[in-house]
TrEMBL record:
<feature type="compositionally biased region" description="Basic and acidic residues">
    <location>
        <begin position="455"/>
        <end position="465"/>
    </location>
</feature>
<keyword id="KW-0347">Helicase</keyword>
<dbReference type="GO" id="GO:0003676">
    <property type="term" value="F:nucleic acid binding"/>
</dbReference>
<protein>
    <recommendedName>
        <fullName>ATP-dependent RNA helicase RhlE</fullName>
        <ecNumber>3.6.4.13</ecNumber>
    </recommendedName>
</protein>
<keyword id="KW-0963">Cytoplasm</keyword>
<comment type="similarity">
    <text>Belongs to the DEAD box helicase family. RhlE subfamily.</text>
</comment>
<feature type="compositionally biased region" description="Basic and acidic residues">
    <location>
        <begin position="382"/>
        <end position="393"/>
    </location>
</feature>
<dbReference type="GO" id="GO:0005829">
    <property type="term" value="C:cytosol"/>
</dbReference>
<dbReference type="InterPro" id="IPR050079">
    <property type="entry name" value="DEAD_box_RNA_helicase"/>
</dbReference>
<dbReference type="GO" id="GO:0042255">
    <property type="term" value="P:ribosome assembly"/>
</dbReference>
<dbReference type="GO" id="GO:0003724">
    <property type="term" value="F:RNA helicase activity"/>
</dbReference>
<feature type="region of interest" description="Disordered">
    <location>
        <begin position="373"/>
        <end position="638"/>
    </location>
</feature>
<feature type="compositionally biased region" description="Polar residues">
    <location>
        <begin position="615"/>
        <end position="627"/>
    </location>
</feature>
<feature type="compositionally biased region" description="Low complexity">
    <location>
        <begin position="556"/>
        <end position="566"/>
    </location>
</feature>
<keyword id="KW-0378">Hydrolase</keyword>
<dbReference type="Pfam" id="PF00271">
    <property type="entry name" value="Helicase_C"/>
</dbReference>
<dbReference type="InterPro" id="IPR000629">
    <property type="entry name" value="RNA-helicase_DEAD-box_CS"/>
</dbReference>
């Protein structure tokens, strides 16, 4: 399957070819024809599998195929709108739009909060065909009359489940009210809960459902493990692991902004250069931290879930869950920052006794049991007692929504409003929105002091958000049964001091912005069965010869929720069986015996790429097999 065979125009094929994409990924192979046919779609595919191109390429093509004439002196209409939950993702998506649309005439622009609105107003006065935005700032523009959304032909909700959850639903509804009724709607995400699917159903018109892997599946190329440790020893253990293994690019997730600040400071004191990124940081600090991390000049980025969605860091080797997320879906997104585009990655979760319930939620969601390890010198106390978990905003909000999995004793439930509301009022007023609209709702702990939540009686409806969805299938929300917690105070904006040097005595050459990793050449093609494992602690990505194989296996999910129309071009897609890695990675002993690894059957693989393979059961997918062609990096953020 080629991009041309999908019906894409030469200028688009040329752009992706220059980026090193030789063939579409399964999500692209299925989504592109459906979008070109004008269908609404709801698409789910694992993290890092190219969903952005899956919607951007056909949008560019549709706009080119249906040009509009604008009279002299009139402003060209905005024709497509992409909404994302975070500013960083908005910037990244818009950059992709520019990259993919390089040889087209279309103009794109990105608007988000935390930066001056004036340059955005100026840009919006000019030609913008595709607008990428976060909802808060978009609504500010709408209110000021500086954006006209009445001409939108195509709407995309990227990270759709997050966009439709309680924190965003109010803003999304307001945006929807500004759009023409007749439009094409595209929803993309790596995770979907049943509730979100039902809600989405009200937004979509006879959607084609496309799921290229079991829902909420993690990527098989990510080695996942859990290290059991006492709560108080997590920080020392993290520093130990980083130093011991010479990890040089580590994304660490904490639950709270305060925790992220504290951890970044502590690591820096231990000569491990670290910065924190979260919603209380200024936009310039956020941008700087992410850009230094992406370019490889910053060793550790400590983040809240603000960085969990969509952010594409080329070949990021390590994701650490310093604390498990309160919402299991967030785990899938967090670890999905590694193992992207066929690369391998490692995700390590430091888990203490308080988090065992969260761990089992994650294992249930991902249908995968995680290997538990203990690091000598950091053995957990067998007599330790669980304590209530300090939560970020998202955790508290999710309890309000009841989307969680009935998580237990330490957790509160709010009365109906979930995170979108305080005391029955919409969560965000315009002033707050202007300041930091989207970040106030993205995986962050309190930006405003909150009242303690009232416990909700079991079975009591949760109100807003789900009620408007009029789900066809009434599955009922799952609930926790915990006690209410006191709202926590705010944390400051302190920037973590940065240590000098890299801590491991092995300075890494900073990459210039936009420069490709390593030698600037496209990554070498990996042959069938050839090694991806390196056996080393990710120092040399090209080393080792572990077996990579993995047998293609079927997939093709009907994935029905609310009576979707069967998709043309085959529902569901190819995927494969877990790769047998020949001991290549985690144990550090890749032996290079590729013959030991099962090979992907060529015809099945072709079927997978065509998107007409059969359904996969519960296995994870060797996404790596979709990307085994050379590809060039792209994007200024790299
Ligand atoms: N057909 C392709 N061939 C090779 N690489 C690709 C292809 N399509 C996309 N990529 C690359 O794969 C990486 C991941 O793509 P993208 O960010 O769109 O993933 P995603 O599915 O949206 O991930 P997430 O769920 O985390 O948002 C990017 O670096 C992109 O350049």
């Amino acid at each position: 399957m080629t991009f041309s065979a999908l019906g894409l125009a030469d200028e688009l094929v040329r752009a992706v070819t220059e980026l090193g994409y030789t063939e579409p990924t399964p999500i692209q192979a299925q989504a592109i024809p459906a979008i070109l046919a004008g269908d609404d779609i709801m698409a789910g595919a694992q993290t890092g599998t190219g969903k952005t191109a899956g919607f951007t390429l056909p949008i560019l093509q549709l706009l080119s195929a249906n040009p509009i004439t604008v009279k002299r002196g009139e402003k060209a209409p905005i024709r497509a709108l992409v909404l994302t939950p975070t500013r960083e993702l908005a910037a990244q998506v818009e950059e992709s739009v520019r990259d993919y649309g390089k040889y087209t005439e279309h103009k794109s622009h990105c608007i988000f909060g935390g930066v001056s609105i004036n340059p955005q107003i100026k840009a919006l006065k000019g030609r913008v065909d595709i607008l990428v935005a976060t909802p808060g700032r978009l609504l500010d523009h709408a209110q000021q009359g500086t954006v006209d959304l009445s001409t939108i032909e195509i709407l995309v909700l990227d990270e759709a489940d997050r966009m439709l959850d309680m924190g965003f639903i109010h803003d999304i509804k307001k945006v929807l009210a500004l759009l023409p009724k007749k439009r094409q709607n595209l929803l993309f995400s790596a995770t979907y809960s049943d509730e979100i699917k039902q809600l989405a159903d009200t937004l979509l018109n006879q959607p084609v459902l496309i799921e290229v892997a079991r829902r909420n599946a993690t990527v098989e190329a990510i080695t996942q493990k859990v290290v059991l440790v006492d709560r108080e020893k997590k920080r020392q253990l993290l520093a130990h692991l980083i130093k011991q293994n010479n990890w040089f690019q580590v994304l660490v997730f904490t639950r709270t902004k305060h925790g992220a600040n504290r951890l970044a400071e502590q690591l820096s004191k231990e000569e491990i250069p670290a910065l924190a990124i979260h919603g209380n940081k200024s936009q310039s600090a956020r941008t700087r931290a992410l850009s230094e991390f992406k370019s490889g000049t910053l060793q550790v980025l400590v983040a809240t879930d603000i960085a969990a969605r969509g952010i594409d860091i080329e070949e990021l080797p390590h994701v650490i869950n310093f604390e498990l997320p309160m919402v299991a879906e967030d785990y899938v997104h967090r670890i999905g920052r590694t193992g992207r585009a066929g690369a391998e990655g490692e995700a390590v979760s430091l888990v203490c006794i308080d988090e065992m319930r969260l761990l089992s939620d994650i294992e249930k969601l991902t249908k995968r049991s995680l290997t538990r390890e203990i690091v000598p010198g950091f053995e957990p106390d067998p007599n330790a007692k669980a304590e209530p978990i300090e939560q970020g905003r998202r955790g508290r909000q999710q309890q309000g929504q009841g989307r969680g999995q009935g998580r237990g004793e330490q957790q509160a439930r709010s009365g109906g409003g979930g995170r979108g509301q305080r005391g029955g009022q919409p969560r965000r007023d315009r002033a707050e929105a202007s300041a930091d609209g989207e970040t106030a709702v993205v995986g962050e702990e309190g930006q405003q002091p909150r009242r303690p939540r009232q416990p909700r009686a079991e079975g009591q409806p949760r109100g807003e958000g789900r009620s408007n969805g009029q789900p066809r299938q009434n599955r009922g929300a799952k609930t926790g049964d915990g006690q209410p917690r006191q709202a926590r105070g705010e944390d400051g904006q302190a920037r973590a001091p940065r240590g000098e040097g890299r801590g491991d005595g092995q300075p890494r050459q900073p990459r210039a912005e936009g420069q490709a990793r390593g030698d600037g050449q496209p990554r070498a093609p990996r042959g069938e069965g050839q090694a991806r494992g390196d056996g080393q602690a990710r120092q040399g990505r090209n080393g080792g010869q572990g077996g990579q194989g993995g047998q293609g296996r079927a997939q093709g999910q009907g994935a029905a929720n609310g009576q979707p129309r069967q998709g043309r071009g085959g529902q569901g897609a190819g995927t494969g069986q877990p790769r047998s890695n020949g001991g290549a990675r985690s144990g550090g002993n890749g032996n290079g015996n590729s013959s030991a690894a099962p090979k992907v059957d060529a015809s099945l693989r072709e079927a997978i790429r065509r998107g007409d393979a059969q359904p996969l059961s519960n296995e994870n997918t060797p996404v790596s097999t979709w990307f085994d062609q050379p590809r060039r990096t792209h994007g200024r953020h790299r």
